[in-house]
Design brief:
This protein is α+β, with helices and mostly antiparallel strands and about 260 residues long. The chain has seven helices and 14 strands. Helix 5 runs parallel beside helix 6.
C-alpha cells in the first residue's frame, strides 16, 4: 500500500499543472492533500473518479484557505472530518480515514508566527491534536499521521539552522512538541530509512530557494510503533513541481489494496 502526502498549495492550481497526470504515473493507493484552498464543489473530481479514486474533502469555512482531502482507491470503512473542536474544524485541518486495521490521518498544522495570537493558536492546536491522536490510538493502534506540520524537527531538517532559531517553524517549543509526539510512540518514517541532511520538502519560492536547495523538511508521514515492522520504504518525491512543497511517500505491507 503506497501512501503519499502532499501540500499542493491550492489544488486547483496544482491540477492546472497536471497533478492528475502525475498521480497516474506515481500511482498512490492513498493521496492525502493539504492546503486545498477550495470548497468541495470547486474541486474537479470526475477524472479522479475515472482513475478509481474515492474523494473526501474537508474545507475551511473561509473560502480559498486551508483545507485537506483524501483521495483513495481503497474504499474506507470510516471517514471523520475534524477533531470535534470548532475553532480548528472551521479551518479544515484534519481528516481521518479507516481502512480495516489501519487509520490514516491527514493534518495541516497552522502556520504560526514567532510571537502573538497566531503563535498561541498553533501551540494550542498542537496540544489538542496530540490529545486527539493519543486518544484515537487507544482504539486504533495502527495509525499513520501525515501532512504539513509546519515544523522542522531537528537541525538536519533545515538549512542553516542557527539562523532560524527565532523563526516560526523552528522555535524551541515547536521542536519540543515534535520530540514529545515522537516519544509518545510515533516514528518518523523517512528517518527510518534516511538519516542524511539536505532532504527538504518546502522551499521559499520568493527567494528561488528550491534551485539552491535551501529548504525545510516540514512534511511528514509518522507511523505508530506497531506499524514500524510493516514499513517497506519511505521517501521524498522531490521531482514533483506542483507546489512550493514536494510530496512525501511511504509503503506499508500486510494491508489489502483490493477495491
Amino acid at each position: 500500500m503506497k501512501i503519499i502526502s502532499y501540500n499542493v498549495n491550492g489544488i486547483r492550481a496544482a491540477m492546472s499543472k497536471n497533478l492528475t497526470g502525475w498521480m497516474k504515473e506515481t500511482n498512490p493507493d492513498v493521496l492525502c492533500v493539504q492546503e486545498t484552498k477550495a470548497q468541495p464543489e470547486q474541486i474537479e473530481t470526475a477524472e479522479l473518479n475515472e482513475m478509481g479514486y474515492f474523494c473526501f474533502v474537508h474545507s475551511a469555512h473561509r473560502k480559498g484557505y486551508s483545507g485537506v482531502a483524501i483521495f483513495t482507491r481503497i474504499p474506507p470503512d470510516n471517514i471523520v472530518a475534524g477533531i470535534d473542536l470548532h475553532k480548528y474544524d472551521s479551518e479544515g485541518r484534519v481528516l481521518r480515514a479507516d481502512f480495516d486495521d489501519l487509520t490514516v490521518v491527514t493534518v495541516y498544522i497552522p502556520n504560526g508566527s514567532s510571537t502573538g495570537e497566531r503563535h498561541q493558536f498553533k501551540m494550542d492546536f498542537l496540544a489538542d491534536f496530540q490529545h486527539y491522536i493519543s486518544t484515537l490510538r487507544e482504539t486504533r493502534p495502527n495509525i499513520i499521521v501525515c501532512g504539513d506540520f509546519n515544523i522542522a524537527h531537528k537541525p538536519v531538517d533545515i538549512y542553516d539552522p542557527e539562523s532560524h532559531e527565532d523563526t516560526s517553524g523552528y522555535l524551541p517549543e515547536e521542536r519540543a512538541w515534535l520530540n514529545e509526539f515522537e516519544s509518545s510512540g510515533m516514528a518518523d518514517s523517512f528517518r527510518e530509512f534516511d538519516k542524511n541532511g539536505g532532504n527538504y520538502t518546502w522551499w521559499d519560492m520568493r527567494t528561488f530557494a528550491r534551485g539552491k536547495n535551501l529548504g525545510w523538511r516540514i512534511d511528514y508521514l509518522w507511523v505508530s510503533q506497531p506499524l514500524k515492522n510493516r514499513l517497506e520504504s519511505a521517501g521524498i518525491l522531490s521531482d514533483a513541481f506542483h507546489s512550493d512543497h514536494c510530496p512525501v511517500m511511504l509503503q506499508v505491507t500486510n494491508i489489502s489494496t483490493s477495491v
